[in-house]
Amino acid sequence: MTPSAQQLVSVGGRRLRLTNLDKVVYPEAGFTKADVLSYYASVASAMLPHLARRPVTRKRWVDGVGTAEKAGEVFFEKNLPSSAPYWLSRTKLAHSSRDVEYPLVDDVAGLTWLAQQAALELHVPQWRVGSDGERRPPDRLVLDLDPGEGAGLAECAEVAFLARDLLEGMGLEPFPVTSGSKGIHLYCPLDASASSDQISSVAHELAKVLEADHRDLVVSDMKKTLREGKVLVDWSQNSAAKTTIAPYSLRGRLLPRVAAPRSWAEIGAADLRHLAPEEVVERLRSDGDLLRPVLAARGAGLEPSPERMAGFAATDASADRLAAYRSMRDASKTPEPVPSPGAGIATSGDTFVVQEHHARRLHYDFRLEHDGVLVSWAVPKGPPLDGDPNRLAVQTEDHPLEYATFEGTIPAGEYGGGEVRIWDEGTYALEKWREGEEVIAVLTGRPDGGLGGEPRRYALLHTGAKGGKGDEKNWLLHLMAPGAAAHGGKHGREVAARKGGAGTGTGRSSAGSGGSNPESAAGPAAEAAAFRPMLATAGRAAEIPADSAIEMKWDGYRALVRVADGAVTLTSRNGNDLTAAFPDLLAPIAEAVAVDCALDGEIVALDARGRPDFGLLQTRGGLTKPREIEAAARATPVHLMLFDLLAIDGTEAMGRPYDERRAALEQLATENERVHVPSVFDGDLEEAMSTSLALGLEGVVAKRRDAAYRPGVRSGDWVKLTHHRVQEVVIVGWREGEGGLAGSVGSLLTALPGDDGLVYSGRVGSGFSDRERRGLVDRLTEHATDEPAVSVPPAESRGVHWVEPVLVGEVRYRERTSGGTLRQPVWRGWRADKSAAEVQVE
Description:
- By secondary structure, the chain is α+β, with helices and mostly antiparallel strands.
- It contains 14 helices and 44 strands.
- The protein has five domains: 3-124, DNA primase, PRIM domain (Alpha-Beta Complex); 140-295, 2-Layer Sandwich (Alpha-Beta Plaits); 323-479, no CATH class; 496-721, D-amino Acid Aminotransferase, Chain A, domain 1 (2-Layer Sandwich); 725-838, CATH 2.40.50.140.
- The strands form eleven sheets. The chain has an eight-stranded antiparallel beta barrel with strand order 19-20-21-22-27-26-25-24. Strands 13-14-10-12-11-18 form a six-stranded mixed sheet.
- Strand 3 (24-26) and strand 4 form a beta hairpin.
- The N and C termini lie far apart (64 Å).
- The model is unreliable at 297-319, 343-347, 465-470 and 482-529 (pLDDT under 50).
């Protein structure tokens, strides 16, 4: 053995002999054992917290992974060999026929020893071992999205977004990982208060609901004959006996690939692929561990949470049905009705109520009067009205009959804290009630209620605790009347502006052709090209009049909307046509607006928490091919936030005061799931800024109530205040990346307007998605030039590719230096809606 093929090293104070360093482990890539060891050393700081206290099962390729013609032999190991170093942490676990001693990898030395053993793949369960050596409850839920023959990563990504909606509706926050093999894993942090059987049962129900709603795409049964062209939602890895590939682990495939944490924007990208080791190392340097939130213990469920309700079971009719309800509430602290013991006498009432509950996670409380109480379920996505007929329903504690009329705000910190309002109410005709198993009833609500004023036949089917195992709380709410149309009701995920006082107004009537509208007269005056958006100036709180109208500041693309004879066009702030780029908005806008008009608004993309995400919106920009646009629209649906009226029925409205324009806008626009008219904030500026920050919004815009709309003018009548320092910049050059970024853009050189033209403002090299980096070169090369547009310090100008100063981007930064450069800038995205001449120093 040559000296270069082995080394005696010290790792974390432990001496290790590393051998066969020049052995090629991945022949197709020339990736050696030394490369394997180097990779695991580079990612150890991020990987070890995900391995800590979890027994590790290993897959070893001692002679390498082989080639396509001849695969390498793999050894699957649980038990530690007798040759394992004495200092390696370990735990002994009982199996059906024997005890097995597993390694616990809590430090770099242990990880290095496993890599030396050619353990390329490390698999761990969803639970950890406690200090007493006993298995603890799981602290995460995992869904493994595995494509069958004929399906691929794109289909897995589509299912990932479907699963995300359902998980978020249950109060869980999923974080995606491309597995490095075929599919995608979704990790949801839990608070370790439920058993593996309970979590596995919940995951199984989730998989079945996804399958029921998307039978052409999803399967929950592992039979290979059922999986062709579909994605298996593998829920079984939540079993205490199962394991999942550890985040950041290599995979034993032909090419070295990694189980890599990703952003949701990446999952939605059309060019999503698995990542190589060097790419993962570079991402860690620039972005840190995207999966770190999974490590933090947190509440994991609905309000009421699944963990809190894990022990709930139906009680005998003669017992105090409200004992659990009372134990969770203090009548002196909550406005909810809290009746004294003895309530809940059997009645023959037929009341139902569905309440919209803005707790930690929005959900809908579905309650039926039965045996003197309101038997209750929490439905994350609301009762099904049309389309998908199935919803997950989580049974909660019985509520008193008085709760059927309750509306109000439960104080923060109290059980179920948040706003409760009646979504629909009425009576039901009971067809079947099999206690703890099945309920079928026809509900008839208010004419203006969420059910649309027509009878709805629902079945509630108990899906939990089959065979004496699992969790009692899980039910399926199924719409039995096929083809029922939804009218009037609002359900599903709400945008952030509906919470905390920054919500949309209610009770507005839509303006139709027969309505009494102060504006009339038809004409072609509302041509989109005739309008330019009014612009806000950056300001300070002290400069804003106390009676200003305060709106939330949306983090998206400004858009002027024109509706004429039912046709919709969208135009950017600098006159570019956005209509083809956002085809998914056209029908919702036509549905929301029944008259010819011109409107001002913002196109936004919402993240998992319903908050605008400018980075996510970037996945919708710059696309020209119809198939790419359609795929992006499916992966990242956008919303339109309307905030001003420019013309109606051919009559220009810009000269009217803000308050009049706003009132007319609220009269003519009827909101739907994609088009919103966020309300003016009801409170002072300080409260508005606090609310904006709490909702994860960019800031606020204060508008003079008596001001006209001044097209194309940056006016002090509108003043914007932001929480973070954000600056539009002109791109003047770029430098190539190094290592894993070789051949792509490493950083962009930026400039800002000064007294005598553009002035260099520094380089930005972080915040780019993989897709952006790969596409930047072509975009920048189109504007290549030999002459720099600005003077750049010599140390910064080496190896720079100069470009014409025509492209505009946006960065977030910490502060500006005395020399005018931006400190710690982070890329936010292109501003295709703005020209270089429009850039101003904020």
